[in-house]
Amino acid sequence: MAFRNNFVWAFIGKSGAGKTVTAKQVAKDWKSARFRMRRRGEGGKIFAFDPHDAFYGIADIKIDAKDEDWASVIIMEVCKSCGKRKKTSVCSKCGSTKFYFPYANSLIILDDYRTLLKSNQMPPDFLDLLALRRRLNLDIIYMVHNPKLILERLSYFSTHFSVFRTEANADDFADKIQKFLTCQRASILVNAYVRLFDEKGYNALYPNFPYVFVQNDSDQLFPMNMDEEIIKELQLA
Amino acid sequence: MELNEELQDNEEQKEPVPLSSLRKSDQDDESVSELEIDIKKKQTDNKATLNIKKPGFIKDFIAEPTRQAEDYGKSSSSSSSPSSAPSSEPTESVEDIRKRLDKEEKDEVSNMSVEDFEDMADFIIDLVDMGLIFGIRWYSQDISDAEYKVPEEKLKKLKKHLSRILMRVGKKFPMGMLLVLGVLAAYATPIRKAHEHRKKVLAEKTRKKLKILPPKDESESEDDTPPYIPLKKRKGGQAK
User: Fold this and answer.
1) What is the pLDDT of residues A85-94, one digit of tens each?
2) Could you read off the pLDDT of A135-164 as tens digits, one per residue?
3) Is the ipTM of this complex over 0.90?
């Protein structure tokens, strides 16, 4: 059976571009696809750093800005028999060596993640989380207003990009993203498409805001929620 | 015969194949290095292709199954930690680990110096001394400040004996528990004194209160009830 790799998906776009709305839809779909897993109690939980409370009712666990150890909590191991957090190879409470990851198979959503990770350096536990994402089956979505705000190490882990309308320059992509040319083209395309709408008309597109989906391993642009005829007229491809 | 000899000569004269010929020739390497790869040109020439998908494309992508976490609900290996690399060494059994831990604990005890044992004995004897004195004081029902003390020399001897025993036994004592008990024993006498003092103060207060209140007379207590008037007077008749 073919398995998809766990994604680290960046949503790039200016405020009001529809990043959160789209991520909310993605989270809903992700949750419903893991209905059986959730019912069996094998994970399928959604962690959300959600300063706007947009994921209320969808997220299972809310990450607060004060939770500095949020990443280490997600990847923590607990004793299978007594539930104590693992510190050494043997449980200090019951002496058991059987541990498990209680928050494996989860989705992590970091909305405006730079308000959570204020430093320009990656916290070590977040790096641990990224390193363990495949083993723990963790999907990650993070949202930024500009590609410049993506931390350097995180950019290398990113597998997918959703480019919404943005004020980013070509250099902003070039500095941060490996597939910067594809992302630049995506940005040009989506900005040109959005220019056809005024603010009111754009808001009327809710909840299907236009964006371009880019994969890190291909040069293809996947325009989403965009009219095919208009794209052809724009002749940007 | 001559032909055969000629053939043999030819075979003998055939040169051995040099090992270097098995490798790729230098010319091939040169040809590879001569290939021009203009990375910059390639990047600028990069053409992204548009791939217009159906609206359900993202939903399908998300719904695709991922490989479930191996360690979820299963026992993980003892060496599995976020930063540790996977090792091919066989993992220890629970019994092995417990044995190792017991051994480490014993080693810790054996590493203790004579001074450590003496300190430990001092602490334990002080603790026992406090406890016993408190018990004796309680038994005597003595609330005075008279001291019930054991002579220092005797205490020293006791400490020496105990330190020797500890060195022989070499057993680890729960020092945290001893500390808690020690604190309780140390504060027992002041607490008892404070309790006695509190009792006295409360008794004094109640005595003062009783003094402030005027003594109750029997007549005053009857004032609350309406005065007794004979029936004859009420009817208008004057009393003689």
Assistant:
1) 888 888 877 7
2) 999 999 999 999 999 998 898 999 999 999
3) no
* Tally of domains in chain A: 1
The whole-chain average pLDDT of chain A stands at 89
Partner-chain contact B75 A97, CB within 8 Å? yes
Which residue on chain B is closest to A182 by alpha carbon?
A: B48
- Please check the confidence at residue A190 and state whether its pLDDT lies above 50: yes
Residue among A137, A134, A168, A140 at smallest CA distance from A155 = A140
Separate counts of helices (H) and strands (E) for chain B:
10, 1
Question: Is position A122 within any domain?
Answer: yes
Q: What are phi and psi of A149, to 5 degrees?
A: -80, -5
Residue A51 lies in a domain: yes
Q: pLDDT tens for residues B202-239?
A: 888 888 888 776 665 555 555 555 666 665 555 554 44
- The percent of residues above 70 in pLDDT, for chain A, comes to 98
- Tell me the average pLDDT of chain B: 66
Range of the domain at A158: 8-67+103-234
CA atoms within 13 A on the CB side of B154: 4
Q: For residue A164, how many other CB atoms are within 10 A of its CB?
A: 25
Q: Which amino acid is at B178?
A: L
Question: Which of A212, A201, A145 lies closest to A179 in space, CA to CA?
Answer: A212
| Identity of the residue numbered B50 | L
Residue of B40, B41, B51, B104 to mutate, testing the A interface (most A Cβ within 10 Å of its Cβ): B51
Residue A36, in any domain of the structure: yes
Residue A91 lies in a domain: no
Q: Where are the beta strands (DSSP E) in chain B?
A: 49-50
* Cβ <8 Å between A77 and B74: no
Q: Which residue of A has its CA nearest to B79?
A: A89
Q: What string of DSSP letters covers chain A?
A: ---BPPPEEEEE--TTSSHHHHHHHHHHHHHHHTHHHHHTTS---EEEE-TT-TTTTT-SEEEPTT-TTHHHHHT--EETTT-PBPSSSS-TTT----EE-TT-S-EEEETTGGGTS-SSSPPHHHHHHHHTTTTTT-EEEEEESSGGGS-HHHHHH--EEEE-S----HHHHHHH-TTHHHHHHHHHHHHHHHTTS-HHHHHTTTT---EEEEETT--EEEEES--HHHHHHHT--
Contacts of A131 in chain B (CB under 8 A): 82
User: The CATH number of the domain where A216 resides is what?
Assistant: 3.40.50.300
Chain-centre distance of CA B157, in angstroms?
Answer: 37
